[in-house]
Specification:
By secondary structure, the protein is an alpha/beta fold. The chain is built from eleven helices and twelve strands. The N and C termini lie far apart (100 Å). The N terminus and C terminus are likely disordered.
C-alpha cells in the first residue's frame, strides 16, 4: 500500500468557545451595570442639587422668563376690558365638589362669568353650593356621571369619553344659547331682563386648574396677534403627532362661534370625534374641520409640566416656597399642585 497523507482535525472541547463568550458577556454586562449606576447616581445628585439646594437660583431663572406681561397702563386697561366666560368641568362627588367650592370662593369671584358643569351626582349638595354662591352658575349635564372612569382599573373608558364630549358640547350650547349671533346679540325681549355681556373669550378648564384672571387677560391680549381671529390658547402638548392643550383652553369668540355651529350641525361620529375632550377634540374638530392649531403659552402650567421637559425649561417636581412666591404670581393658569400650603410646608393636593 502506498503511504497516504492523512489530515487529522482535532476538535476543540465543546465548552471552550461558549465559555469564553459567556465570560466576555458577563464582564461586559458588569461594566455596563457599573456605568449605568454611575450615570444614574450622577444624574440623581445633579437633579437633587438643582431642585433641593439651588431652588432660589432656579426660581430666579424662571422669574426672568415669566416676568409680568407688561407694565404699560394702556395695555393693562385694554386687557382688563376683555370679558371672559369661564366653564369648569367638575362633578358632584365630594372630592370634586370641594374643588369647585375652592374655585368659586377664590378666583371665581374675579371672573366676569363662571359656569360649573356638573353631573347628577349629589344634586342636592350641588344645588346648595349654587344657592350659597349666586355669582356662580350651575349646570347639570345629563349622562356625564361616568366621566372619570378612564382613571379606574376596569372602568369604562368609552363611557368616560362620551361624558367628556357631552360636557364639551355643553360649553358651546350654553355660551351661544342666549346669543345665537355670537358677535351682535339681539336685545332682550322681556322688560327688565338683563342680557349677559358677550364674552371676548370662552375658557374651558378642569377643576384642578387655578386662574389669575388679570394675568390671563394680559396673556390672551399678548398672544392674540399671533393667532387672531382663531386663537386657541393653552398649555400645548403633543401626542402621536397631534397637538392638544392640557388642563383646558381659552378660545377667541369668533372661533368658538365656528365650533358651536359645527357641533350643532354634526354628530360626534360624523366629526370622527370618538374619544377624549383634549387630544381627540383638538385633532378631529379643531384641526381637521376648522384648520386651527393651538397656540402655546408659557404662562399656562398643567400637571403634565411637572414630569416632562417643556417650554425650554423643566419645572421641579417638588418646588419649594421660594418658587411659589416668585414664579406662580406671573402665571395665568396653573395646576393646583402649584398651590403652596404654609401649614403643611408642601404643595397641596386636593
Amino acid at each position: 500500500l502506498s503511504p497516504t497523507m492523512v489530515s487529522i482535525s482535532i476538535p476543540l472541547p465543546r465548552a471552550s468557545i461558549p465559555t469564553s463568550i459567556t465570560m466576555h458577556r458577563q464582564r461586559t454586562a458588569s461594566l455596563l451595570t457599573v456605568l449605568a449606576v454611575t450615570i444614574g447616581t450622577s444624574l440623581f445628585l445633579l437633579t437633587s442639587k438643582k431642585y433641593e439646594y439651588d431652588e432660589a437660583a432656579y426660581a430666579s431663572l424662571l422669574t426672568r422668563q415669566l416676568s409680568p406681561v407688561s407694565t404699560d397702563p394702556e395695555f393693562k386697561a385694554r386687557a382688563a376690558g376683555q370679558a371672559i366666560s369661564f366653564y369648569v368641568k367638575t362633578s358632584g362627588k365630594k372630592r370634586y365638589l370641594g374643588r369647585a367650592e375652592r374655585i368659586a370662593d377664590t378666583w371665581g369671584k374675579d371672573a366676569d362669568s363662571i359656569t360649573f358643569l356638573f353631573d347628577n351626582d349629589d344634586k342636592e349638595a350641588v344645588d346648595e353650593f349654587g344657592r350659597e354662591r349666586p355669582w356662580a352658575k350651575i349646570q347639570h349635564v345629563e349622562g356625564t356621571e361616568r366621566f372619570g372612569e378612564y382613571k379606574i382599573t376596569g372602568g369604562d373608558s368609552g363611557a368616560a369619553h362620551t361624558a367628556q364630549r357631552l360636557k364639551t358640547r355643553a360649553v358651546f350650547a350654553s355660551e351661544f344659547r342666549d346669543h345665537d349671533d355670537a358677535v351682535t346679540p339681539e336685545p332682550p325681549e322681556e322688560k327688565g331682563q338683563q342680557q349677559q355681556p358677550v364674552a371676548d373669550w370662552v375658557c374651558y378648564l378642569d377643576d384642578d386648574m387655578l386662574v389669575n384672571v388679570a394675568n390671563l387677560k394680559e396673556d390672551l391680549i399678548e398672544k392674540e396677534p399671533l393667532c387672531a381671529p382663531n386663537c386657541l390658547i393653552g398649555d400645548e402638548w403633543g401626542h402621536g403627532g397631534d397637538k392638544f392643550t392640557a388642563g383646558g383652553w381659552c378660545m377667541q369668540r369668533p372661533l368658538a362661534a365656528r365650533v358651536s355651529e359645527l357641533l350643532k350641525d354634526h354628530t360626534d361620529k360624523e366629526l370622527r370625534w370618538t374619544s377624549t375632550d383634549d387630544v381627540s377634540f383638538n385633532s378631529r374638530v379643531i384641526r381637521d374641520k376648522l384648520g386651527v392649531s393651538p397656540t402655546d403659552s408659557e404662562r399656562w402650567c398643567s400637571e403634565l409640566i411637572m414630569r416632562k421637559r417643556h417650554k425650554s425649561y423643566k419645572f421641579p417636581k417638588v418646588p419649594g416656597k421660594t418658587y411659589w412666591e416668585t414664579v406662580v404670581p406671573n402665571l395665568a393658569v396653573y395646576h393646583i399642585r402649584f398651590l403652596w400650603s404654609d401649614d403643611a410646608a408642601e404643595f397641596s393636593f386636593v
